Amino acid sequence: MQVRELSIAGVFEFSPQSFEDNRGLFSAPFQGDMFEKAVGHALRVGQTNHSVSRRGVIRGIHFADTPPGQAKYVYCPRGSMLDVVVDIRVGSPTFGQWDSAFLDAKSYRALYVPEGIGHGFVALEDDTAMSYLCSTGYNPGREHGITPLDPALNLPWPANIEPILSEKDAKAPTLAEAQTAGLLPTYEACLEHYRSL
Ligand SMILES: Cc1cn([C@H]2C[C@H](O)[C@@H](COP(=O)(O)OP(=O)(O)O[C@H]3O[C@@H](C)C(=O)[C@@H](O)[C@H]3O)O2)c(=O)[nH]c1=O
Description:
Catalyzes the epimerization of the C3' and C5'positions of dTDP-6-deoxy-D-xylo-4-hexulose, forming dTDP-6-deoxy-L-lyxo-4-hexulose. By secondary structure, this protein is mainly beta.
């Protein structure tokens, strides 16, 4: 398992080994000891999620109220996607910046997205599945989004796809609008939460 921290501190990419033989393949996309060594605490799993998307579907950019927020450990068990993280923590040194990782069902590469970081992805082929280990259960009243098409963010969606968004995501505010509306988590609250883990 190789581990790499993205340009937003606290977001990690985990690249597991795949073992192929005449039966097929084996991989362990989540390994608790590697996770704990990189991130500094164990991952508490309160819910697992699974979604399936056709090519061009963009889901996100989503986040939950922090604290506690919802941390996510995600990987792609079928198809391929570009996964995007956005630092939306007001006061963070990397506020407004994004990074991305290519996830697919060949590498089983995974991404850890801590609480307070905005998360989204685009499916690059039909029938692309996303698997999540989430730190908390779903709390619809505390789930928020910013538009993935915010021109100020200029997220790296491929030019050759026609974005397909949910109605909710299509109506989501820009990062600046969400900040003005007081929807964004503060960096201080996030740090305090991370220290408690
Ligand atoms: C996220 C979620 C949705 N739902 C329901 C609500 C709705 O009827 C349906 C689809 O919900 P959404 O449109 O929010 O699904 P989706 O757009 O796939 O939401 C996901 O997007 C990515 C980017 C994330 O990071 C996830 O945490 C999650 O927010 O599923 C649950 O019951 N539990 C859940 O945990």
